[in-house]
Predict the 3D structure of the following.
Amino acid sequence: MPGKNISAAAPLLPTEVTLREELRADVQKLAGEIGERNMLHYAELNAAADFIEDSFSRAGLRPRRDSYEIHGQVCHNIEAEIRGAKPEIILIGAHYDSVLGSPGANDNGSGVAATLALARRFSGKQTEHTLRFVAFVNEEPPYFISGEMGSLIYAKKCKARGDKISAMISLETIGYFSDVPDSQIYPSRVLGAFYPKIGNFIGFVGNLRSQPLLRRVIGLFREHAKVPSEGAALPWFVPGVSWSDQWSFWRNGYPGIMVTDTAPFRYPYYHSANDTPDKLDYDRFALVVSGVQKVIEDLDKL
Ligand SMILES: [Zn+2]
């Protein structure tokens, strides 16, 4: 679903400036202050979990830990729920671990900061759907697509309980944009022929079964958003399509999409020590999150 190209990002409204500064502060906390956080940087992983839990609490929510052990070390997914009138759940999630050797500002400090900002904005509101905000542990290798991946453990429990998740939205590396020609590459020539070569848009990706959800989300996003967007429903095996927590929900029969700046197909600092807070474009990042907020508001009414 290639979109119309909106060339320059519109100026930010005062509410979007507030949002931008929240995002900047939380990325700084996770990637600047805490830094690399994973099972080999376990104290930092726990510091991030504590920070996320505390952020949900300060937003007026009651976070819960979904914990499990890897070789005797406990790790935690952190969730916070806003109970709606209906049992159907819209789940917004992002992984909070960073890959080995990286402070993970964009991957995925950006997704976590966005999840927290969205939770603050919906806290205290009466919604139709139940909204669930989840920070997942252990998305990065060696746990990715393994039985120890945080979101896979979480999604399996959802299925076992019979949770009715009508939409899973995975926020994965969403803060880097470029206006330079050929700044955007693709995992295949075919895709490259249809989609823009300038990395100034936000991407929405789903598997084939999630295509109806993908179309709905991108349609709603385009009604409101001030950043260009592109969407594609692709087979799960196209490189990049499965590369985040939505995969775990697909595996358990739930529709899910990933919101992403496309990470390795655009971001020069992907999975490196240079994935630091200064690399993000906080203006456009804020416009993406504010667009996603409107998407959730509208999905909630459907
Ligand atoms: Zn990631």
Remarks:
- Helices lie at 14-34, 42-58, 105-122, 150-161, 189-194, 211-224, 246-251, 282-301.
- The first strand starts at residue 64 and ends at 70.
